[in-house]
Amino acid sequence: MGIMLTNRANNADGYRPDASVNASSRSPLYHQIYLVLRDGILAGTYKADDLLPSEFELAATYGVSRITAKRALSELAATGMVKRYRGRGTVVTYKPENPPLRASVTNWLHAVASMGRATAVQVLDFSQGTANDEEALALQVPVGTPVQRSLRVRSHAVGPFSLLTAVVPGDLGASYDAAQLESTPLLELLRHAGITPNHAAQTIGATLANQAAASHLDTEVGAPLLRLQRIVYDKTDRPVEYLTALYRPDRYQLEMVLTSEQTLAALGNPLSTLDTFEKGKQGQGGKTRGA
């Protein structure tokens, strides 16, 4: 059962957020409703000056008491994203300080380079180690092969928007240090090491912020995040980077240009290699690393 936004918010396509709540969840019902409303505001479903559903409407929609619905709206008001008026209702006051940063999926190499020059990076971890099962499969090396791992937070004017975990072969990782990684995009550092990034395979999905991700991205535990996994190859088809990136969707967007089937056929299937990687992970029992 969902909330009809077209009655209150100016939403031409009649989009409905996921209105389900789980009474058996450890998260209180009022907080679950708060998260749905908050995410609707951050996603632009509810815009500034839009009127949110009333306590009665929320209670009917979610099958909760009016007190629970009122607490959800009060929690939202405490963030400063809405203002409550007696006799009028709850009005959205949130306005994004800046539009979300956008990156092209099609022209990914140019997008990565441009982002590296336009944003700031903080290196949280920079260490040497050996490849685990997942990393070995992605980089096409034996388990236990030396690798270099880094954990970075990337920010723009509004604040942090991405948490990046990168794994590269040990010989390449030895060619730069943490200070260089903070000032220079990783792909440029690889070029300095004599590597020419040529193509990449990537998947894009969604996840929820755990405690560590929420802390680094200045958001709440359980907040929705974009999740991107990318394997970058050089001209010889050697994997030179395995990246797992988490993005705040209110501060970062991915743009895609959809072309005809004929054009896609001419380009080939850029995800075929990653499909093989995913099948390999399933063959290993579906092991994955936490973000």
Characteristics:
single chain; 291 residues; alpha+beta; Arc Repressor Mutant, subunit A; Chorismate lyase; six-stranded antiparallel sheet; two-stranded antiparallel sheet; 27% strand; elongated; disordered N terminus; disordered C terminus
Rg, nearest Å: 22 Å
Under CATH, the homologous superfamily of the largest domain reads Chorismate lyase-like
* Share of helix, binned: 25-40%
Mean pLDDT: 80
* Apparent shape: elongated
Strand content: 25-35%
Instruction: Give the beta-strand count.
Output: 10
Coarse structural class: alpha+beta
Give the low-confidence spans. 1-18, 264-273, 285-291
Number of domains: 2
Run of helices and strands: HHHEEEHEHEEHHHEHEEEHH
The largest sheet, given as strand count, sense and whether it forms a barrel, is: 6 strands, antiparallel
Q: Give the strand order, joined by hyphens, for the main sheet.
A: 4-5-6-9-8-7
Distance between the termini: 32 Å
CATH class of the largest domain: Alpha Beta
Do you know the CATH topology of the largest domain?
Answer: Chorismate lyase
| CATH architecture heading of the largest domain | 3-Layer(aba) Sandwich
Query: What is the count of DSSP helices, taking H or I runs of 4+ residues?
Result: 11
